[in-house]
C-alpha cells in the first residue's frame, strides 16, 4: 500500500460517517452508501492532484502535480510538473512511455480482464462497510463548515471487533473526529489520530502513535462530494530501522465533468 493510499484510507476511515439524524449506527451505514455513489461518480470527472512532501523542519522538499483522467473504467495519474516547473524533456519522455504503455494494455484487454480491473477498483473501499460494527460513535453537537450545518462526531475503535478484511485491520489503530453535512449526509472534514502502530507491508514501514491525519471534501457539480485535501504528520519507522518524520499534503482541484450524468445521458438517447 502506497503512503498516499494509506493517507486516503485513514482519512476515509475517520470521515465516512453520519448525517441528518443523531443515530450514529444507522447514519454511518447511510453515509457509506452515499460515499459509494460518489466513488462511482468520480469516474465521470477529471481533476488535478498536487502532492507536497515536507522535510523534518516542515519545509516543502518535493512538489508533484498530476492530471487524473479516466481510461476504460479506472483512473490514471499522469505527472505533469515537478517543484514548480514543467517536466524536463527526459521526464516527459518517460511519462509518455508509461502513458502509452497503459493505453496499449487497456486496449488489448479481454472483456474479462477489463471487468476484473474495474471490479478491483470498485472494491478498494468495500472494507469501509465494516465501520458501523468496528467503531463506537458519539454525537458532539453541531458546527458550521463552509456555511453549511454539520454534525460533529467522535469515533473510537471497539476493543473486541474482529476485522473481516485485510484493510479493516487499520480500524483498531485509529480514532477520529468528523464533521458531517446534515443535508447531504456526507463528511466535509475529518481529523484522525493514530493510537497504535500501523504497519505498511511486511517490513516496509510502521507509522507510530501520535500521527495526525486531516481530510476535507468539497461539493462538486452540485451533487457529489469529492476529495479536496488530505494531510498527514507524524513519524514512521522505515524498514524497521530508520525513523523518518512524515509530512505530506495531497490536494485536488479543477474537477471537470467529462461524461454526462446518467439521467442526462439517458435523456439524450431518446
Describe this structure in words.
There is one protein chain. This protein has 270 residues and is an alpha+beta fold. The protein has one domain (3-77, 122-269). Helices cover 28% and strands 43% of the residues. Strands 1, 2, 3, 4, 5, 6, 7, 8, 9, 10, 11, 12 and 13 form a 13-stranded antiparallel β-sheet that branches.
List strands and helices in order, with pairings.
Elements: H1 3-15, H2 24-41, E1 45-54, E2 60-71, E3 74-82, E4 85-86, H3 89-108, H4 111-123, H5 131-134, E5 135-145, E6 148-157, E7 174-181, E8 186-194, E9 198-200, E10 205-207, E11 212-220, E12 224-238, E13 242-257, H6 262-269
Antiparallel strand pairs: 1-2, 1-13, 2-3, 3-4, 5-6, 6-7, 7-8, 8-11, 9-10, 10-12, 11-12, 12-13
Please sum up the structure shown.
With 270 residues, this protein is of the alpha+beta class.
Give, in order, the helices and strands. HHEEEEHHHEEEEEEEEEH
Rg result: 19 Å
Per DSSP, what share of the residues sits in E-state strands of 2 or more residues?
35-45%
Percent of residues in helices: 25-40%
Mean pLDDT comes to 84
List keywords for this structure.
disordered C terminus; single chain; alpha+beta; 270 residues; globular
Amino acid at each position: 500500500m502506497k503512503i498516499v493510499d494509506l493517507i486516503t484510507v485513514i482519512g476515509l476511515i475517520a470521515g465516512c460517517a453520519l448525517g441528518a439524524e443523531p443515530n450514529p449506527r444507522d447514519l454511518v451505514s447511510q453515509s457509506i452508501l452515499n460515499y459509494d455513489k460518489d466513488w462511482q461518480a468520480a469516474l465521470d470527472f477529471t481533476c488535478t492532484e498536487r502532492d507536497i512532501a515536507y522535510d523534518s523542519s516542515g519545509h516543502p522538499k518535493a512538489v508533484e502535480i498530476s492530471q487524473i483522467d479516466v481510461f476504460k473504467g479506472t483512473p490514471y495519474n499522469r505527472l505533469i510538473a515537478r517543484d514548480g516547473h514543467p517536466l524536463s524533456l527526459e521526464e516527459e519522455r518517460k511519462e509518455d512511455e508509461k502513458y502509452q504503455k497503459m493505453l496499449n494494455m487497456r486496449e488489448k484487454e479481454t472483456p474479462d480482464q477489463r471487468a476484473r480491473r474495474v471490479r478491483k477498483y470498485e472494491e478498494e473501499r468495500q472494507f469501509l462497510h465494516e465501520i458501523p460494527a468496528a467503531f463506537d460513535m458519539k454525537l458532539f453537537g453541531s458546527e458550521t463548515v463552509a456555511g453549511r450545518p454539520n454534525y460533529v462526531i467522535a469515533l473510537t475503535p471497539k476493543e473486541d471487533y474482529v476485522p473481516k478484511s485485510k484493510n479493516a485491520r487499520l480500524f483498531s489503530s485509529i480514532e477520529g473526529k468528523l464533521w458531517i453535512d446534515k443535508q447531504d449526509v456526507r463528511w466535509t472534514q475529518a481529523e484522525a489520530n493514530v493510537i497504535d502502530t500501523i504497519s505498511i507491508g511486511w517490513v516496509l514501514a510502521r507509522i507510530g502513535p501520535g500521527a495526525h491525519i486531516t481530510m476535507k471534501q468539497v461539493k462538486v457539480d452540485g451533487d457529489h462530494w469529492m476529495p479536496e485535501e488530505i494531510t498527514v504528520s507524524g513519524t514512521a519507522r522505515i524498514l524497521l530501522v530508520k525513523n523518518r518524520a512524515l509530512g505530506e499534503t495531497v490536494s485536488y482541484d479543477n474537477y471537470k465533468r467529462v461524461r454526462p450524468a446518467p439521467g442526462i445521458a439517458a435523456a439524450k438517447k431518446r
